[in-house]
Amino acid sequence: MKFNTEAPFWQFMGTLARFTGLNAVALVTMLPVVTIGPAQAALYSTLFAYDKNDDINLVREYLRRFKREFKQGFISGLLLLALIAAVLFGLGFWASWDTDLAYAPLIVMVAAAVVTLVIAEYIFALQARFANPLPRQWKLAALFPWRAFGCTLALIGVDIVALGLALFVPFIRVLMLIFGLSWVFYAKSLILLWGFRKYGGYGEVERTTYVNAHSGM
Fold first, then answer.
1. Residue 130: beta bridge partners?
2. 94 vs 155: CA distance, rounded Å
3. What are phi and psi of 211, to 5 degrees?
4. How many CB atoms lie within 10 A of CB 192?
């Protein structure tokens, strides 16, 4: 009996295997925690390239792009971790004060937490997609989400669904470890590409200088 490798089932299994490999190397490179930044940038960069050409070797492309995105992603990752730590400390500190004077700073810290969340959604995707110096990259990550508000809500929605399933469905938690992370990032990459196309040409904030994701291909 001959196997038809062009059949939809085998095509799907091949894609699943490729995404499983991508998932594995991405998780390994995220393990040190401080490398989460370049790992996310490389993952987005690889999936942006996959959207243009689905025949690429995902693992090889990821490793190549991880090296390319490392320096800027590492710095942004440390800055983001410091920002998250500061926001969490501020929330905990002011929430522990049961006085009227704590309400105003607590509201400020909640607003800071929301801004930090949207920056985290975009900072590494913007690095993967566009070549910008670090200050401009952070400016884009802080301002672009509000222009592309529908895109931002969709990204957060994907995160909430994925996190909810992983927390409350043990089987999904296992699948997340095997290949789920790469699929979540792929879903988010499609949303981001739509957002960049729709909102990326309006004004100075969204001006594209160079598309990193497709360079050298």
1. 211
2. 29
3. -90, 105
4. 25
Give per-10-residue mean pLDDT for the chain (217 aa): 62 86 95 94 95 91 95 96 96 86 89 95 94 91 92 96 90 84 95 89 39 38
Task: Return the closest-CA partner of residue 213 out of 85, 74, 86, 49.
Answer: 49
Beta partners for residue 211, in sequence order: 130
Q: What is the Cα–Cα distance from 173 to 162, expressed in whole angstroms?
A: 9
Question: In the chain, which ranges are continuous DSSP H helix?
Answer: 8-30, 36-52, 58-95, 103-129, 134-147, 149-168, 170-175, 181-199
pTM for this one?
A: 0.86
Q: What's at 171, amino acid-wise? A: F
The answer to whether the CB of 195 falls within 8 A of the CB of 148 is: yes
Structure token pair of residue 84: 């998250």
Q: What is the rounded CA–CA span in Å between residue 84 and residue 37?
A: 13
